[in-house]
Design brief:
The chain is mainly α. Helices cover about 85% and strands about 0% of the residues. The protein is built from three helices and no strands. The two termini are about 15 Å apart. The mean pLDDT is about 95.
Length: about 90
């Protein structure tokens, strides 16, 4: 069960990370952007780690306090859930 949970969070984090990369590239080109609600949705449903890492790596949305604090909080929650599930399903 732990591997399923870890896989889920990994998949959503990769998705959120890629979304941040694409949105940053589109912002530079003044192209079609990914709506902020879609970035938040990916982060809220388990992609907080990827969203935060993408934000920091690509320096995207870092001037927006709600993104900096919100994505960091969601990443922390995701890490806590992953650690809890590891302990709960691996007898730790």
């Amino acid at each position: 069960m732990f591997l399923i949970i870890l896989g889920y969070f990994t998949l959503l984090s990769v998705l959120a990370f890629v979304m941040m990369r694409i949105d940053k590239a589109q912002a530079r080109k003044r192209g079609q952007r990914i709506p902020e609600k879609n970035l938040w949705t990916a982060a809220i449903f388990g992609g907080g780690i990827g969203a935060y890492l993408g934000m920091m790596m690509f320096r995207h949305k870092t001037k927006h306090t709600n993104f900096r604090v919100g994505f960091l909080l969601l990443a922390a929650i995701d890490v806590a859930i992953i650690l809890w599930s590891y302990q709960a399903f691996n007898g730790g």
